[in-house]
Design a protein that fits this description.
Largest sheet: 6 strands, mixed
Shape: globular
CATH topology of the largest domain: Collagenase (Catalytic Domain)
Distance between the termini: 45 Å
Bound molecules: zinc ion
Oligomer: single chain
Number of helices: 10
CATH class of the largest domain: Alpha Beta
CATH architecture of the largest domain: 3-Layer(aba) Sandwich
Strand content: 15-25%
Structural class: alpha+beta
Strand order of the largest sheet: 9-11-10-14-16-15
Order of helices and strands: HHEEEEHEEEEEEHEEEHEEEHHHHEEH
CATH superfamily of the largest domain: Collagenase (Catalytic Domain)
Number of strands: 18
């Protein structure tokens, strides 16, 4: 099982949760002011995609808000509306057709009510809302909605997936010319540099790597880590085949101390971006809840996705759909963590694993089809959403050695040593020798299946032993075995990439 196995398992209560070589590019350059935002143009923009230019200019509007509530209630309060740098998203695909995530927001022309922009996402609040503390007290989390800067007043509506439908959480009207909308250049705080450049931001997936837990004296290490992690990402499909569809940039963000906070280990650093282990008190879950700082720092560069590199060796990371990815770059499994978490972040993939010491089982059959593209409940009356990828002759559900796998997995968990911090801070249980050994028995069971490598519907997924199914017997979303992404996960990631790279018919 993956080392992140305890991460979201404890989050899952009853509610379904929603995680080479470089091209010939010049060596990284410091571009301190390269993306400082130009003023919003007052007149007509040059013709490109007509619909975009009719309604938007090529800047980003950012609505910062607080999402407060408990397990049953939600409150939304706007903090501020600001300009957030150039718009890096597509100018031709402005509405999200994938229908993933726990939340979504829509931007409509106020006068005509025409839908101009729509995006789906998950959030830290959404995960916290499923934890035990949310049943006892209120919590509040900062978040942002980002969309191209509208020319005319718009209506913004935030929606939440509730069972099988969407419900409106909050709506407001925004006049981009209002004095309450902060139309000022974002502050440029730290150097931005290019890791991989392949083309215009509006036609590429723009990844932005940010340093957290690196001191000013460790920026050379950050540069090396950013290059290394980028190299590793593009050795895995479908990233490898789609490498030319990506730009990768990085920001040198110095912290006063080396490494981010690890509260359960008594380490209380206040790193620049506020990342910390033990998010929701889980050992290896790392996120930042300081969204305001994160977004302010990131506004110096165009981006679609934020990836925070943690200058730590203890196993850890996290990934939330259209929100953030974190990865501890010095732990032995860093490559795996990055790719797995980007599966959550880019494509809304669900965890396919389910065997865990702390697995929560509802004992109830799901009433709704999960929204994650790689998880199904096989409910009556629903066509299998990856049915076109099922290998010929593969039964649905697909038989596999489930009991033998679970027995072996539990034996491994009993044998696995408790994580011990070495003098260097490395998580000893995750040292290469220790980490590989526990996987061997289960890996052999998976590989021996007659349906290994095929697409079907294998029971056991998304922290549930029964009633939920995954597409393949093994996948990066299921284990740390070198299985790669299954075909269903690969397609989901490719579809996410397409949202950023597709050009309009007029541009072909
Ligand atoms: Zn998969």
């Amino acid at each position: 099982m993956t080392g992140l196995v305890t991460i979201r398992v404890a989050l899952r209560l009853v509610t379904t949760l929603a995680s080479l070589t470089l091209l010939a590019v010049a060596s990284p350059q410091c571009l301190l002011v390269a993306w400082s935002a130009p003023p919003i143009p007052a007149g007509d923009a040059p013709a490109c995609a007509v619909a975009f230019d009719e309604h938007f200019v090529t800047q980003t509007m950012r609505v910062d808000y607080y999402h407060s509530g408990n397990a049953d209630e939600d409150r939304i309060a706007v903090e501020r509306i600001i300009r957030d740098g150039v718009w890096a998203g597509s100018r031709t695909r402005l509405t999200d057709p994938l229908d993933l995530g726990l939340y979504g927001f829509e931007v409509r022309d106020q006068q005509s009510q025409q839908l101009l922009y729509a995006q789906r996402f998950c959030s830290v609040f959404g995960e916290w809302q499923t934890t035990a503390p949310a049943r006892q007290h209120w919590g509040t989390f900062h978040a942002s909605l980002r969309f191209p800067w509208p020319r005319q007043p718009v209506e913004v509506t935030l929606k939440q997936r509730h069972g099988g439908t969407w419900r409106t959480l909050w709506t407001t009207t925004i006049d981009p010319h209002s004095r309450f909308v902060i139309n000022a250049d974002p502050p440029v705080q730290h150097p931005v540099w290019t890791v991989l450049e392949n083309g215009p931001v509006e036609q590429k997936v723009d990844l932005l790597l940010l340093a957290d837990g690196y001191t000013a004296g460790e920026m050379e290490k950050f540069h090396a880590d950013a290059q290394r992690m980028t190299d590793r990402l593009f050795t895995v499909e479908p990233f490898q085949s789609r490498r030319a569809d990506f730009n990768v940039r990085a920001i040198d963000v110095p912290s006063s101390q080396s490494g981010v906070a690890q509260p359960r280990d008594g380490v209380f650093h206040r790193s620049a971006l506020g990342c910390q282990y033990n998010t929701f008190d889980l050992e290896r879950y790392v996120l930042t809840c300081d969204n305001r700082t994160l977004r302010d720092v990131a506004s110096a560069a165009p981006y679609d996705y934020l990836v925070i590199l943690l200058n730590n060796s203890k196993y850890g990371g996290g990934g939330i759909y259209n929100d953030q990815t974190t990865v501890a770059v010095d732990c032995p499994a860093a490559d795996y963590i990055l790719v797995h978490e980007l599966g959550h972040h880019l494509a809304g993939l669900g965890d396919e694993y389910y065997v865990s010491q702390v697995a929560y089982e509802t004992g109830k059959r799901p009433r709704f089809e999960p929204w994650e593209p790689n998880i199904t409940a096989l409910l009556d009356g629903h066509a299998l959403k990856w049915g076109d990828l099922v290998s010929p002759g593969t039964p649905i559900p697909t038989p596999w050695a489930k009991e033998a796998f679970e027995t072996a997995a539990r034996a491994q968990q009993r044998q696995a040593p408790k994580p011990v911090q070495t003098a260097s801070g490395e998580d000893d249980a995750q040292s290469p020798a220790v980490a590989r050994e526990p996987q061997r028995a289960t890996a052999e069971i998976l590989q021996a299946s007659p349906y290994a490598g095929r697409i079907g519907a294998f029971e056991g997924a998304s922290y549930e032993a029964h009633g939920l199914y995954r597409p393949a017997i093994d996948c990066i979303m299921f284990s740390r075995n070198p299985a790669g992404f299954c075909a269903v996960c690969q397609r989901a990631i490719a579809q996410a990439i397409d949202q950023h790279t597709a050009v309009s018919i007029a541009d072909r």
